[in-house]
Write a structure and sequence with these properties.
Layout: H1 2-7, H2 23-27, H3 37-44, E1 54-56, E2 63-66, H4 72-79, E3 84-89, H5 110-125, E4 128-138, E5 140-141, E6 147-148, H6 149-155, E7 163-177, E8 185-195, E9 216-218, E10 221-223, H7 225-228, E11 239-240, H8 263-273, E12 279-282, H9 289-297, E13 300-305, H10 308-324
The structure holds S-adenosylmethionine.
């Protein structure tokens, strides 16, 4: 049977090439779902949640809903009176991704995008704890006056009685897009706001400190910066250059997803900006990276996706991690039942 053959392959062995298909489908057992409406229809049969339903994790108390972030009632139902210490949101950016303007990440009129943003931000702010962190990933389209990044930043001023801007982080991607006539676009933006005075825990990268030369006299002794530092490695600062973008050879890769954030980035946010047993909120689950990071670090995560397929993938990723210790499926299929009887 094809399924048995597929899953007997060794860890780093590639699936058999199917020469008539585009590259991504040759490599991954499930193609980008936003480009395959027919496949989406078949996958819906394997989803345990329907629109409006919430899955309660019997082990760690996480929650995953098929809900709409723009609906106040949905956010209230998901959070059920609990106060959120950390919100990490990665909404659709209103930018074409990989030259595809597809249903899930389609570009809408900027005014409508801001109305949508206004709703999900205010529903999130309403459930924050007295002291809380609020992060949002957001993009800028150079072909359209860098929308929506500046518009979103200005929109956020609506909440300046509650939230204070804290930082503006840029994550550098290894691969980018652009032509020989333009600077290659390798950036992802992450805005950080706080409510009250939440704790922040310093973390370090694996990048060694190499620059000496900043001298200071301490206790009568002339010291240079490496002697004085608390760590041999540098802090991430607000330009993160040490995070690999997810691609099909990485264990954490989730085939079918097209906007997956690297686990390392989300773990960093949770480590610095939340503590054990805190509740973390993510209204745009997709591949379930925030849920997985919460499980790894002992935070409870409440998350949702408007799409039942991504809610299902999110739950399956957690279950797969608990069963195998693996953070994703690499090129394998999160829906193996799809392959039964095929071939
Ligand atoms: C950029 S992706 C999030 C990626 C995620 N951080 C990860 O690492 O996989 C955005 C997700 O938001 C979902 N989405 C779009 N509109 C939504 C809405 N109104 N409410 C909830 N989810 C929505 C999409 O289905 C998509 O899965």
């Amino acid at each position: 049977m094809k399924q048995a053959r597929l899953f007997q392959l060794q860890e780093n062995e590639l699936p058999p090439a199917e020469t008539t298909k585009p590259q991504t489908t040759r490599r991954e057992r499930l193609p980008r779902l936003d480009k395959h409406p027919d496949l989406r229809q078949r996958l819906l049969a394997f989803c345990r949640l329907k629109a409006g339903e919430i899955w309660e994790d019997p082990v760690s108390g996480h929650r995953v809903g098929v809900l709409n972030a723009a609906r106040e009632e949905d956010v209230q139902r998901l959070t059920a009176g609990y106060r959120i210490a950390l919100a990490v949101n990665d909404p659709p950016y209103n930018i074409k991704v990989g030259n595809a303007n597809t249903q899930q990440l389609s570009k809408i009129d900027l005014k409508d995008y801001l109305v949508f943003s206004q709703k999900w931000v205010s529903h999130t702010v309403a459930v924050l704890a007295e002291h809380a962190h609020f992060y949002v990933w957001i993009g800028a389209d150079y072909r359209e006056d860098f929308q929506p990044l500046p518009d979103f930043i200005i929109l956020m001023r609506q909440w300046n009685a509650t939230l204070r801007s804290r930082n503006f982080i840029t994550v550098r991607n290894q691969r980018g897009f652009g032509t020989q006539k333009n600077w290659m676009w390798v950036r992802q933006e992450l805005l950080h706001y706080i409510k009250g005075n939440p704790p922040f825990h310093v973390v370090y990268t694996d990048i060694p400190k190499i620059l000496k030369g900043y001298y200071k006299t301490v206790g009568g002794k002339r010291t240079e910066n490496l002697e004085r530092s608390k760590s041999d490695t540098i802090r991430p600062g607000n330009v993160w250059v040490d995070i690999q973008q997810v691609f099909y050879r990485m264990e954490e890769n989730v085939p079918g997803c097209y906007a997956q954030k690297p686990l390392k980035a989300i773990l960093r946010i949770l480590e610095t900006s939340s503590q054990q047993d805190d509740i973390v909120l993510d209204l745009f689950a997709h591949s379930g990276t925030t849920l997985l990071a919460g499980e790894m670090l002992g935070r409870r995560v409440f998350t949702m996706d408007i799409d039942p397929i991504f809610a299902e993938i999110t739950i399956r990723r957690l279950e797969h991690y608990r069963r195998t210790g693996k953070t994703g499926w690499q090129w394998r299929n999160p829906f193996p039942e799809l392959e039964v009887g095929e071939g």
